[in-house]
Here is the input.
Amino acid sequence: MTTGSVHFRDFDSAEFLREYWQKKPLLIKSPWASWSNPVDPDELAGLACEDHVESRLITQSDPEWELEHGPLPEDRFERQGKAPWTLLVQAVDHHIPSVAALLDCFRFVPNWRVDDVMVSYAVDGGGVGAHFDHYDVFLVQGLGRRRWELGGLCDENSELLPHSNLLLLADFEPTDEWILEEGDILYVPPRFAHRGTAVGDDCMTYSIGFRAPSRAELVEDWAEDVADQMLDQDRYTDPQLAQQDNPGEIGSEAISQLHSMVTEKMLDQGSFMRWFGRYNTMPKNPDIDWQPDILASADDIRQSLVEGATLIRNPASRFSFVREPQSSILLFVDGQCFSCSGDEAIFAENVCASARLTVEPDASQPTLDLIAKLFNQGSVALDL
Ligand code: SIN
Ligand code: CO
Here is the structure.
């Protein structure tokens, strides 16, 4: 597994998936060929001051913890007192290529399960407290040292501290404890209680975060999409209505007919697949417009490829595909669906597999058209 200078030297991802993924925590002593912290604290603090970046500043004031949402004023950090604090910035991979490159080492998990890389900075004693997350996470120690304590599995009945909007656990009994050094990784499956505390100042942790849709969200959002395509006149009819003894009864035949009005639409796996691909690749932050200032035609793309340009995916873009019969595929990028066949399908598979790729300038017209569309929606760029 190699990407630029960031790669694992010593990590068996097949064994990891078999033995640990979604099953049990794992401490991975620095598996990198070489480790260097991908973003410095000042750059992280700068991101937390920007409008379109989601960030939180957590201070362990006595008696209650304080939570402040970004964007933070530029002089905010000068005003921090002596109480331990931590800054957390979401989706740093979308803005800093060296952080995005970290993700390439974790592509043994499919793109559609990846969420983002959150980066935290803490002073001595800082942390977010004991909690559990609904998602898998790899906690990569970037700079300095952090003590991680791990407890058992939690659920919606686990008691939380009353005051806190930080969702901190009321009873946390650690069963394991490690101090992570630079480059070490702790994998924590969903719902395991954990607490990370900075040991010394300048502690930075990279959370490689995943996502898993809830059943409620799938039902709600898929049903909304199905409903949007229904006509208002598509209604219940009962031309054979029979006289019934009690007008209050909703008859069993009516119930079956009503139920099938819903289920026959929801059972269509083809339209579910098209919807899910679009839904799952919607940008995490739709408020950011990544479109280029100057749009490109397929000819412009060909010209850049002739000049040796490499195609690079926007790290904020989401790429996935599904296979269809007759070796065609549906490519999903940032909420858009592209039906691809022939060498366009091969290109689509390649662009889903690598964040950076070379495309031959003699690529077919449909492939160049597709690249131009991806370029114009800001999902790929050309690097000369
Ligand atoms: C942190 O980086 O301090 C928090 C990460 C986590 O516990 O999920
Ligand atoms: Co956590």
Notes: The chain has a mean pLDDT of 95. Residues 131, 133, 194 surround cobalt (II) ion (ligand 2) (CB under 6 Å). Residues 214-225+266-384 form a domain with the Malonyl-Coenzyme A Acyl Carrier Protein; domain 2 fold (CATH 3.40.366.30).
